[in-house]
Every structure is written in structure tokens, then in C-alpha cells.
Amino acid sequence: MLPPILLETPRFWVLDKPAGLAVHPGPKTPHSLEQLLPAGHAPVHRLDRDTSGCLMVGRRPSSTKGLMALFAAGGVRKTYWAVLENLPDDQGQGFIDAPLAKISSRERGWRMIVSPDGKPARTAWKLLARQGAYALVEFRPETGRTHQLRVHANLIGPGTAIFGDPVYGKPHPAGMLLHARSLTFTDPWEETEKTVEAPCPDRFAIAGFSADGLAEG
Fold it and tell me: Among 16, 48, 50, 165, which one carries the catalytic annotation?
């Protein structure tokens, strides 16, 4: 079944991708979003399999190409919500500028690390709410590197990680609590600014946050 459509235009959709669904097929992800899309439709950008939320899909090849160029030029502002573990009490906002590079080993597979030889990666963040040991944080990435938010989350404080991250934190049966909350951009065809939001997913309740992203109780 196709994920919910948050915005529909003749040239593109913005979908609310569920966690657990890969965008593209691969050896470990034979079932993917691409298989659910009608002919001629294609994802414009990527989200990790375990990340939910806003995903743009071009509805014809020419639209996909134009929207990819918009993303590449930095014309799309992305906002993410994440639940963090071990966020220091004195930390409420910040900016992380740490380049990332890909490494691989037989024991751990591939992952991203901070490296001066890596590609530039910049992320602004701020605290939205706390609930016990967990913190709801908003990320605003200025770049779009693989696993950028997951690695940058580790740099905020000692032991800080996104809840349920199996690579850079501790896995959890509920999965990883990272959500692509919104996309803001100027529609290249209508020349109007649009902001599309994906509702906070139900799985965030395991850390004490309700569907509107606020602490429960």
C-alpha cells in the first residue's frame, strides 16, 4: 500500500514514509518504496529505512530531475525530530560542524565517522521538550550527508545518541526515533513557498512524547 500522501500536485507528491520501509531496493531490502510507486514516479531524495516522515516523489522523469536539482542547490529546508538519550541538562541548542567520511570493516560493516578528510556536514539543533531521561530535539541540517544526524547526535554530549539507533547508539525493539518532520521549498512550477509537515509518529510514545511531539502527562 502506498504511504499517505501529504501533498499532491501534478508534478510531485510528498509522502509520509513509514519507518522500516526502504526507499530503494537492495540485497537486504528487497521490499522498498520504489516497488509501490506507479510507473514514471521516482523518489527525489533519500531517507534511511528506519527514518519516517516527509519524502518527495517526482511524478514524471522531468519533474524528478528538476526537484533533484532543487535539493542539490540547497533549495529545500529540512526539519527532523528525534528522541535523544543522555542529552546533558545544560544543553538546549547548538550547531555542529563536523565533516563525515565512510569507513567499512568486516566486523562492523560500513558506517560514517567524523574525519577532516570527509565531506562537509553541518547541523543546527534545539531542544523541544524533555520527558524523564529522554529529550525531543529538532534538527535542521544544512547539508545532506549519509547518517549525518545520527553521527552528529553523538557529538552533542557524552553518550548522547538517537533512541534506538542500531549503529551509533543502542538498538531497541521499537526502532529508531528519527522522523523527517517537514520540508519547506519554493514550488518551481507554481513559484509559491510550501511547507509540508508529517505528523509525529505513534512510536514516539514509547519515550513519553504524544502525537503532537509534546511530553505526555
Answer: 48
